[in-house]
Amino acid sequence: MILDCVRPGCINHFDSRGGEIYTLEKRPGGTTEFYWMCPECRREYGLSQLDNGELEVVPKSDLTGQIPPNPKADLRMFPGRFWRRLAA
Ligand SMILES: [Zn+2]
Known about the structure:
two-stranded antiparallel ribbon, 2 helices, 5 strands, binds zinc ion
């Protein structure tokens, strides 16, 4: 369930017109969790998955050299062209 921006301290509520949605596939079980980052935070931050599976909001400058989210992890970006149509 998407409610608010994933960045701690941000108070923006979900808005289907902008931002970025990430999906995290939890294993075992295969349940998928959704996270939303607001347009303001998205300009400066990205979502990354640590080795222990926890999610971390990091400055975009720290994501240099890797494609956020980590393509080898279970965290993925959910293309806006799909979810915006669903949320509209
Ligand atoms: Zn935010």
